[in-house]
Automatic annotation (TrEMBL):
Protein's pathway: Cofactor biosynthesis; thiamine diphosphate biosynthesis
Lineage, highest ranks first: Bacteria, Pseudomonadati, Pseudomonadota, Betaproteobacteria, Burkholderiales
Signal peptide coordinates: 1-23
General function of this protein: Responsible for the formation of the pyrimidine heterocycle in the thiamine biosynthesis pathway. Catalyzes the formation of hydroxymethylpyrimidine phosphate (HMP-P) from histidine and pyridoxal phosphate (PLP). The protein uses PLP and the active site histidine to form HMP-P, generating an inactive enzyme. The enzyme can only undergo a single turnover, which suggests it is a suicide enzyme.
Stretches assigned to coiled coil: none
Similarity comment text for this entry: Belongs to the NMT1/THI5 family.
Pfam families per record: NMT1
Protein name, as recorded: Thiamine pyrimidine synthase
One example GO MF annotation: transferase activity
InterPro entries with a match to the protein in the record: NMT1/THI5, SsuA/THI5
Keyword Nucleotide-binding: no
Domain SsuA/THI5-like: 43-256
Subunit field text: Homodimer.
């Protein structure tokens, strides 16, 4: 609880003050997680297991998806009302389909997870060290599409880098077998994939995009336009319940992983608990969060994020902040982003 209070969650936990709902008919919300149910899904599943959504008068189901793009599409189509999704993916969707785009209602990962990962033997300590190296990554995922922007910011000539497109399933294995010098991906995915294959942390270098000037908001809770229009209080209650799950997960990550294991028996509970702790320490419990409260958003930073994503993804237009983000659920409400 001390750790939870230290985060200044929602500026003294204002959202947790919402009382137990007494509605005769609970509001049904289908929530799409942004990928398979691994350790990072633990806080939501723990909230579900402990009845926090039910306390708020919500009937919530949580399902895995094939990725943020899938999760955003499900919410936009109306088959799901809420989801967790990467901010960059939502910005792209909003630019291409503004009439039906969901909106971010709460930013969970304040620090970007995109990273360059290499074995220490490659000597890659900064982006400039990629010159003359072979880098493996995806074609359409966020880390790959933001990679050119990182190279511009770091003043690295991309023509001096050999880029090899490889599937996420093969990416980290190819790094271990020396087929590429480095890979780009999300740190909490690639590092734990490598660890699961026997890699030691002291033998792996992780260069986070955020440390070199490219720090975009990441995983967020999103909601459909219809839900925000018709039942904004249900969104508020969902966030309150979910954050109680996060509070409990921060206090006891193993309990959150146990809730995941009840739904996905293929996970390694020890590894997934470590993944969740990594996310808490590096993406959730950041200096900005400790200063302002979890969910805090800086409007200028978000505008710059949108401009960077628009350029990197070659989008038709930069969507305004108001199209992709509803500030009323942030710590301090609208004042937090004005």
């Amino acid at each position: 609880m001390k750790l939870f209070s230290g985060l200044k969650l929602l500026a003294v936990g204002a959202l947790f003050a919402v009382g137990s709902a007494q509605a005769a008919e609970p509001t049904r919300i289908k929530f799409a997680f942004n990928f398979a149910l691994d350790g990072s899904a633990g806080p939501y599943l723990l909230a579900l297991e402990r009845g926090y959504f039910k306390e708020q008068g919500l009937d919530v189901t949580i399902d895995p998806s094939s990725g943020s793009g899938d999760a955003v599409t499900r919410v936009a189509s109306g088959t799901y009302q809420m989801a967790s999704a990467d901010f960059s993916t939502l910005v792209e969707f909003a630019s291409r389909q503004p009439a039906v785009t969901p909106k971010v209602v709460f930013v969970m990962y304040e620090r970007a997870p995109q990273a360059i990962i290499s074995l220490s033997s490659a000597g890659i300590k900064k982006p400039a060290d990629l010159a003359g190296k072979t880098v493996g990554g995806g074609n359409a995922d966020g880390p790959a599409r933001l990679f050119p922007a990182l190279m511009r910011i770091a003043d690295v000539d991309p023509s001096k880098i050999t880029y090899k497109q490889i599937s996420p399933q093969l990416r980290d294995s190819m790094l271990l077998t020396g087929q590429v010098d480095a890979v780009i991906g999300n740190d909490y995915t690639s590092w734990f994939n490598l660890k699961g294959r026997g890699a030691k942390r002291e033998n792996v270098d992780i260069l986070e995009y955020a440390d070199f000037g490219l720090d975009v908001y990441s995983n967020s809770i999103i909601a459909s336009q219809a839900l925000l229009r018709d039942k904004p209080e249900a969104v508020r209650k969902f966030i309150a319940a979910a954050l109680k799950g996060w509070r409990d997960a921060i206090a006891d990550p193993a309990a959150a992983t146990k809730a995941v294991a009840a739904r996905n028996r293929l996970i390694d509970p020890v590894l997934e608990t470590e993944r969740l702790q990594f996310l808490i320490d590096h993406k959730v419990r950041t200096p900005n969060v400790q200063k302002h409260g979890i969910g805090y958003v800086d409007a200028d930073r978000m505008k710059k994020n949108i401009a960077t994503i628009t350029e990197s993804f070659e989008l038709p237009a930069a969507p305004p902040v108001s199209l992709v983000y509803d500030p009323q659920f942030a710590p301090g409400g609208k004042s937090a982003v004005q």
